[in-house]
C-alpha cells in the first residue's frame, strides 16, 4: 500500500482539559470548534492556507483575546480537521488510501487551494491520489470503500467516479499489467440459499480471469453495481466471468437468508429485522439486474438459489419472473433439490412453492420450441444445382436440425427432473390435485421414455391423500401411460389397492399383451386379482348370450387356462360396461376420456385381446356382484 508523508516538524498537539492545543511559546489567538471539540490554535499558520477561515474571521469581529470559529458540519470530523491543521503547522502527517478521502474533503471544505498558497494541501493530495492511489489495485479498492462515508463530497470531487473508472480499466487490462499489492481472503460462513459453497471452492481454484471478483465483493452494493456496469460496458470481459463474479458477491453479502423464513410462514416482529430484509432485498434485486443476458453465463443452480432468496425476501414480481425466465432457459441443468423452493406466502398452504415451478416449466416450454425444419432435398437435385447460396441454406438447415435435437434432449432431461420433483412434493397433504396434474402434464408425452418415476409420484400422492374419491383417483391416474411401465412397476401396480380397478386391469392387460407379442409365456396373475376374478360363472353365461346375439361362430372362440370359452367380442362388452360405470361415477364428466382409452386398447393385436377378454369381463362382473 502506498503512503505519503508531508511536513517535518514533530507532533506538538496536546490535550488539556478536553481542549486540544499546540505546545508553543506563542499564545493562541483562535478557537476552532469542530463537532463539540475545541482547538486552541494560531491564526497565522491556519489563515495563510485556509481561505474559508480567512473569510469567517473577517466576518466575525474580535470580542476577546480569542476569536471563535464554528465548523459544525466539517467533513471527516476532528481527525480530518487535525490532519489539515497539522499540515498548516508543518507537522509531519502520513497520508494513505485510508485517510486521503477524508483529508481531501476537509481540504476542500477549508478551501486550501493554490489561490491561497502555492503547493497547498489540495494540490499535494491530488498528485498523490492520481499518481499513487490510482496506480495500485488495493489502494483503489480501499479508497472507493472509504467514499461511502462521504458520498456527496466524494461525488462532487470526482473521487468515486475516478476510482470506479480506474478499477474497471484494470479489470479490462491483463492481470500482469495490474499492480496487485494484496488481495482479500476474508470469508465467513455461507448459506446454501445465496450461493453454492462448492461453486465458491471451484472459483478459488479457477482461472485467473476472475482474480478481481473477491476484492470487488468487499464493496457495498451501490458501488459494486456501478463498478460492474463500468466493467460490462467495456465489452471485453466474458459473460461467464461476470457470472462468476456475481456468484462470489452473492456468497459474500447474502448469508443466512433462510433465517427469515420457515414452513410456518415467518412473520417479522421488529423494525431492525424489517430493515435488514429491506437491505437484502435491494441487494438481491441489484444482483439480478446485473446478470448477463447470455445463456449459461451463470449456473442454473445459482439462479434457483437466487429465486429461493427472492421468495424469502419477497422481491418484486419482475425480479422473480426474470429469474424464472432465465431458469427456463437452462432447466435441464437443474436438480430436484434446486427446485424445492420454500413457500413463504401467507396465502399458500403448501410446503414448497409449486406455482413458481409451474411458471419455470412454462418458460422452458416456450424456450425449447424449435423452428420447423424444411424437407430435405433430393440428393441428385442438390448436386446438380450446387451454389454458395445452396451451401448457406444447407448450413442453416443443419444448424436447425442440431437445435431441434438439443431441444429434444433437453425435454427428456427435464421430464426426469419433473418426475423426481413430483415425488418430493407428492406427500404434501395441502398440495391440490390440479397442481400436481398441471406439473405432470407440463412436459409433452414423448419426453417420458418410461412412466416408472411418474407412477412412483402418483403412488406417493395417493398414500398422502387418502381422502380422494373414486373420480379424483381416476383423474389422477389418467396421466399415467401403462404401456410405458417396466415389469417391476407393473407387478407393484397390479397389487396396489390405492389404484382404481380399471388401472390395475389395464396394467395387467398391457403386461400380458407385451409378453404375448414377444413370444413369451403369460405370467401368472397376482393372488389379489385371482381372488377378485374367481367363482364368477355368470360371466361365461353373459358371454355366451352375447355371442349368440352377435352371431359369432364358435371357431372364433378360444379356450383359456380354466377351460372356459371367451369370445373376442368381449372387448366390446367391456367397453360398454366401462362407459356405463363412468357415467354413474362421474356424471358424464369423463366419458370422452374413458372411451378414447378403451379405443386405444382395442387396436392391440388379436391374441392379447383374447387373452384378456375373460380377465376384464370377470373383473367387472365381480364388482357388480359385490355391489348387488
In short:
The protein has about 625 residues and is mainly α. The chain has 29 helices and nine strands. β4 and β5 form a beta hairpin.
Task: Describe this protein with a few key phrases.
628 residues, mainly alpha, Potassium Channel Kv1.1, Chain A, disordered C terminus
Gyration radius over CA: 40 Å
Low-confidence stretches: 182-207, 370-390, 399-403, 532-580, 586-628
Strand order of the largest sheet: 2-3-5-4-6
Number of strands: 9
Termini, distance in Å?
94 Å
Q: Which sheet architecture does the biggest sheet show?
A: 5 strands, mixed
Figure out the total of helices.
29
On the 0-100 scale, what is the average pLDDT? 77
Annotated CATH architecture of the domain at 1-134: 2-Layer Sandwich
Structure commentary:
By secondary structure, the protein is mainly alpha-helical. Among the domains are: 1-134, Potassium Channel Kv1.1, Chain A, CATH 3.30.710; 405-518. It has 29 helices and 9 strands. It has helices at 43-47, 51-59, 77-89, 100-110, 121-133, 137-146, 151-157, 159-172, 197-204, 213-216, 221-234, 239-253, 271-290, 300-312, 317-329, 336-339, 354-367, 379-384, 388-425, 433-441, 452-464, 470-477, 487-494, 501-517, 527-533, 538-550, 570-586, 591-602, 606-627; strands at residues 3-6, 13-16, 19-22, 30-34, 37-41, 67-70, 93-96, 558-559, 565-566. The strands form 3 sheets. The chain has a 5-stranded mixed beta sheet, with helices on one face. Strands 1-7 form a two-stranded antiparallel sheet. A two-stranded antiparallel ribbon has the order 8-9. A hairpin with a 2-residue loop joins strand 2 (13-16) and strand 3 (19-22). The radius of gyration is 40 Å and the shape is elongated. InterPro entries: NPH3/RPT2-like (IPR043454), NPH3_dom (IPR027356), SKP1/BTB/POZ_sf (IPR011333). Belongs to the NPH3 family. It comes from Capsicum annuum (Capsicum pepper). This is BTB/POZ domain-containing protein. One of its GO terms (biological process) is protein ubiquitination.
Amino acid at each position: 500500500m502506498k503512503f505519503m508523508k508531508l511536513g517535518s516538524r514533530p507532533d506538538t498537539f496536546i490535550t488539556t482539559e478536553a481542549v486540544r492545543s499546540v505546545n508553543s511559546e506563542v499564545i493562541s489567538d483562535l478557537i476552532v470548534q469542530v463537532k463539540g471539540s475545541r482547538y486552541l490554535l494560531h491564526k497565522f499558520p491556519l489563515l495563510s492556507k485556509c481561505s474559508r477561515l480567512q473569510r469567517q474571521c473577517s466576518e466575525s469581529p474580535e470580542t476577546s483575546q480569542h476569536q471563535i470559529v464554528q465548523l459544525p458540519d466539517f467533513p471527516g470530523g476532528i481527525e480530518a480537521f487535525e490532519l489539515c491543521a497539522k499540515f498548516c503547522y508543518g507537522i509531519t502527517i502520513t497520508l494513505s488510501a485510508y485517510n486521503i478521502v477524508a483529508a481531501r474533503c476537509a481540504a476542500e471544505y477549508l478551501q486550501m487551494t493554490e489561490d491561497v498558497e502555492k503547493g497547498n494541501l489540495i494540490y499535494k493530495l491530488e498528485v498523490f491520489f492520481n499518481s499513487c492511489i490510482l496506480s495500485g489495485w488495493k489502494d483503489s479498492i480501499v479508497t472507493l470503500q472509504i467514499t461511502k462515508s462521504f458520498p456527496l463530497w466524494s461525488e462532487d470531487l470526482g473521487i468515486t467516479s475516478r476510482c470506479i473508472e480506474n478499477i474497471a480499466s484494470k479489470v479490462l487490462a491483463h492481470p500482469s499489467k495490474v499492480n496487485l499489492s494484496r488481495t482479500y481472503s476474508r470469508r465467513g460462513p455461507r448459506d446454501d440459499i445465496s450461493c453454492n459453497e462448492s461453486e465458491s471452492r471451484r472459483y478459488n481454484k479457477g482461472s485467473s480471469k476472475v482474480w478481481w471478483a473477491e476484492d470487488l465483493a468487499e464493496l457495498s452494493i451501490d458501488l459494486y453495481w456501478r463498478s460492474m456496469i463500468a466493467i460490462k460496458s467495456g465489452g471485453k470481459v466474458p459473460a461467464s466471468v461476470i457470472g462468476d463474479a456475481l456468484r462470489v458477491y452473492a456468497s459474500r453479502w447474502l448469508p443466512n437468508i433462510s433465517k427469515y423464513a420457515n414452513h410456518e410462514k415467518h412473520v417479522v416482529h421488529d423494525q431492525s429485522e424489517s430493515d435488514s430484509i429491506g437491505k437484502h432485498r435491494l441487494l438481491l434485486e441489484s444482483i439480478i439486474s446485473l446478470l448477463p443476458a447470455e445463456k449459461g453465463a451463470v449456473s442454473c443452480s445459482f439462479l434457483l438459489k437466487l429465486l429461493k432468496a427472492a421468495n424469502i425476501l419477497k422481491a418484486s414480481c419482475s425480479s422473480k419472473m426474470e429469474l424464472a425466465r432465465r431458469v427456463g432457459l437452462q432447466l435441464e441443468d437443474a436438480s430436484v433439490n434446486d427446485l424445492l423452493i420454500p413457500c413463504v406466502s401467507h396465502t399458500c398452504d403448501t410446503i414448497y412453492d409449486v406455482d413458481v415451478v409451474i411458471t419455470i416449466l412454462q418458460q422452458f416450454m416456450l424456450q425449447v420450441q424449435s423452428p420447423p425444419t424444411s424437407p430435405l432435398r433430393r440428393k441428385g437435385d442438390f448436386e446438380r444445382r450446387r451454389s454458395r447460396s445452396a451451401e448457406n441454406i444447407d448450413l442453416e438447415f443443419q444448424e436447425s436440425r442440431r437445435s431441434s435435437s438439443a431441444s429434444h434432449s433437453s425435454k427428456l432431461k427435464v421430464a426426469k427432473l419433473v418426475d423426481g420433483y413430483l415425488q418430493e412434493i407428492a406427500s404434501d397433504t395441502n398440495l391440490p390435485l390440479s397442481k400436481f396434474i398441471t406439473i405432470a402434464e407440463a412436459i409433452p408425452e414423448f419426453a417420458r421414455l418410461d412412466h416408472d418415476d411418474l407412477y412412483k409420484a402418483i403412488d406417493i400422492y395417493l398414500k398422502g391423500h387418502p381422502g380422494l374419491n373414486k373420480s379424483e383417483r381416476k383423474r389422477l391416474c389418467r396421466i399415467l401411460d401403462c404401456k410405458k411401465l417396466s415389469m417391476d412397476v407393473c407387478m407393484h401396480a397390479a397389487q396396489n389397492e390405492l389404484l382404481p380397478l380399471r388401472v390395475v386391469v389395464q396394467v395387467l392387460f398391457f403386461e400380458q399383451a407385451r409378453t404375448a407379442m414377444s413370444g413369451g409365456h403369460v405370467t401368472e396373475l397376482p393372488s389379489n386379482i385371482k381372488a377378485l376374478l374367481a367363482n364368477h360363472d355368470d360371466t361365461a353365461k353373459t358371454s355366451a348370450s352375447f355371442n349368440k346375439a352377435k352371431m359369432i361362430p364358435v371357431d372364433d372362440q378360444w379356450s383359456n387356462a380354466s377351460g372356459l370359452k371367451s369370445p373376442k367380442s368381449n372387448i366390446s362388452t367391456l367397453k360398454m360396461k366401462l362407459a356405463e360405470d363412468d357415467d354413474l361415477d362421474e356424471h358424464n364428466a369423463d366419458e370422452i376420456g374413458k372411451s378414447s382409452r378403451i379405443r386405444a386398447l382395442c387396436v392391440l393385436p388379436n391374441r392379447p385381446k383374447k387373452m384378456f377378454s375373460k380377465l376384464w369381463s370377470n373383473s367387472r362382473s365381480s364388482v357388480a356382484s359385490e355391489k348387488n
